[in-house]
Design a protein that fits this description.
The chain is of the alpha/beta class. The chain contains twelve helices and twelve strands. The strands form two sheets. It has a six-stranded mixed beta sheet with strand order 2-1-3-5-6-4, with helices on both faces. Strands 9-8-7-10-11-12 form a six-stranded parallel beta sheet. A hairpin with a 2-residue loop joins strand 5 and strand 6. Helix 5 (107-118) crosses helix 6 and helix 5 (107-118) crosses helix 10 (245-252). The protein is globular and about 60 Å long. The chain starts with 7 loop residues before the first strand and ends with a helix. The structure holds 2'-monophosphoadenosine-5'-diphosphate. 2'-monophosphoadenosine-5'-diphosphate binds next to helix 6.
């Protein structure tokens, strides 16, 4: 890759950041669309985060993605927030424009675009959605489903008070239920989403009897290592449409790339294969 003096620059701020797939993902699009630009891994310690963001803006960067552990600090630092970043309470995308820093959160839209693409008959019914987990990822999913007009969302978390607080804060038909009641919660559901780390390589599997889940309900796992989690394998075996977590990662990157590099990129099978390949 040879850059001109006018190259457009962006990157991902995290600590650590070496595991991030974002440089590979944006690098694929930059090359594919023949853009004079670069997207860099930017390891930044938490205590240096704000100074680093200001330095990037001073250096003429177009913006940056923000990952663990900086998403809340980015929310505090932004001069303005998109409605979805405000609702989610965290920022994963910064856009530098006219000396100001705009904070966005594209995790929810990435989740929803991936769901619509991977489960073409979505929504299969007007039944409730079931969301497992009440952490940062769950917030993005809940806001996306609420804003898409899903009338009822059943939220189940190991620590129930966390789910209750989140349901009260976000409103819009979100109801907290007991974690132990997850088999019954699946009755009449149109969607099941796992936002916990259960099922991830090295973590325990998510134990869940899917018997009550309607066969047309989409089953989505935000975990993408492994790509086919035990939950997705069980759902596939009984004929439910499944949606894996890699798609969300790819779709959440679209708005940032479009804002920084001026091209609305496509999520394609070739991109998926490239991001999955080691390297
Ligand atoms: P993320 O940003 O990925 O959502 P997080 O904010 O740390 O990560 O949230 C992790 C979620 O996974 C939480 O809902 C957590 O439940 P608690 O609130 O009870 O901690 C859930 N989780 C993690 N390990 C779990 C386990 N072994 N069993 C059930 N839920 C688990």
């Amino acid at each position: 890759m040879i850059l001109s003096g006018k190259a457009k620059l962006a990157g991902v701020l995290g600590w650590p950041v070496g595991h991030s797939r974002s440089p590979r993902l944006h690098g694929f699009w930059l090359e594919h669309y023949g853009i004079d630009g670069a997207y860099l891994p930017l390891p930044v310690r938490p205590e240096r985060f704000k100074a680093a963001v200001r330095a990037l803006a001073d250096l003429g960067f177009r913006g940056a993605n923000v990952t663990v552990p900086h998403k809340l600090a980015a929310h505090e630092l932004a001069d303005s927030l998109t409605g979805r970043a405000e609702a989610i309470g965290a920022v994963n995308t910064l856009v530098f424009e006219d000396g100001r820093i705009r904070g966005d959160n594209t995790d929810g839209i990435g989740f929803y675009e991936n769901l619509r693409t991977a489960a073409p008959r979505w929504p299969p019914s007007d039944g409730p959605a079931v969301v497992l987990g009440a952490g940062g990822a769950a917030r993005a999913v809940l806001v996306a489903l609420r804003d898409a007009g899903v009338p009822e969302i059943r939220l189940l978390n190991r620590t129930r008070p966390t789910a209750e607080r989140l349901a009260a804060e976000l409103g819009g038909g979100i109801r907290a239920l007991d974690w132990e009641r997850r088999p019954e919660a699946l009755a009449e559901a149109c969607l099941l989403v796992n936002t916990t780390s259960l099922g991830m390589t090295g973590q325990p599997a998510l134990e869940l009897d899917l018997a009550a889940l309607p066969r047309e309900a989409a089953v989505c796992d935000l975990v993408y290592a492994p790509l086919t989690t035990p939950l997705l394998a069980a759902a596939e075996a009984r004929g439910n449409p499944t949606v894996d977590g890699l798609g969300m990662l790819l779709h959440q990157a679209v708005p940032g790339f479009a804002a920084w590099f001026g091209v609305e990129p496509q999520v394609t099978p070739a991109l998926r294969a490239f991001v999955l390949a080691p390297g």
